Amino acid sequence: MQIAAGAGARCFHSNRVSRTLIGAALVLVATVVGLVPSPAVSTALSKPAHPAVAGSNTAVSVAAADALAALWARDDTYADKLAVVVPLVAVAGKVSTGRLADAWSTASRQRMIVLLSALTQVGVPYRARRAAAGVGFDCSGLTSWAWAQGGRYLPHQSLRQIRTIRRSTKAEVLPADILYYPGHAMLALGVGAAMVHAPYPGRSVEVSPATGRWERIVRVGTPDGQRAVVVSPTTTAPTTTRP
Fold first, then answer.
1. What distance in Å separates the CA atoms of residue 185 and residue 180, rounded to the nearest whole number?
2. Which residues cross the membrane (predicted)?
3. Which of 66, 117, 193, 243 has its Cα between 20 and 30 A from that of 140?
């Protein structure tokens, strides 16, 4: 009887340990698959896992990448580094350096992350149905990718983007607003209809003015209805669909 009792005690102890181990394993698995809530994740604007870097060795892209790194780091050198970008972009976009500096100085941090991210890709070739930093973009690929750096999803298709955004005017244009006409989407520099965009096959991402007929037909829209966005650090842009 004593032997039987001892065996029973050992069996009970073994079962209890097994249940404990199984319970711990289930909690671990549940946490991994999301059945048990994990610690809260902040929805504040956070740096992408793969932050934008200069997509080419153009003066604009290199200077923009330098300023963007300082902006993400909240470094005191940001203003000085941005001051290097302003005249380069102003010349290419044929806008006043002073007006561009004013527009950028009052823009939100999110919008400057979006715009500077796009500027880091100046010189990267146009590639249909692509939104890949340093590799290639089509028009809506650039706008959706850049806004994803700021934590905002936009469809990778120009018509869908146009349908998503709130209409605005060139008089109200803000840095990183969407400029568009049927079949093409661009990012506003923040002064008139000057832009950074991926034009068409055979060209590369570039800063351009909108002059003549194009300036008349270009429209403006803002991706955030109230010009203020709650962003998620997990937001990404799709990489395949029509431009």
1. 5
2. 21-41
3. 66
Same domain, 68 and 31: no
**Residue 59 C-beta-side C-alpha neighbours within 13 Å:** 10
pLDDT tens digits, one per residue of 142-157: 999 999 999 998 889 8
Question: Do 69 and 111 fall into the same domain?
Answer: yes
Tell me how far apart the alpha carbons of residues 243 and 223 are, in angstroms, rounded to a whole number.
17
Residues 31 and 63 occupy one common structural domain: no
55, two tokens: 């997509």
The beta-strand segments (E) located in 115-238 are: 131-132, 136-137, 166-168, 178-181, 184-188, 195-197, 206-208, 219-222
Owning domain of residue 29: 1-39
Are 78 and 71 spatial neighbours (Cβ–Cβ below 8 Å)?
yes
Q: Where are the alpha helices (DSSP H) in 73-108?
A: 78-93, 97-105
pLDDT digits (tens, 9 = 90+) for 178-195: 998 888 999 999 998 899
Give the Cβ contact number of residue 59 at 10 Å.
13
Same structural domain, 94 and 31: no
The answer, as to whether pTM is greater than 0.85, is no
Residue 89: what pLDDT?
Answer: 98
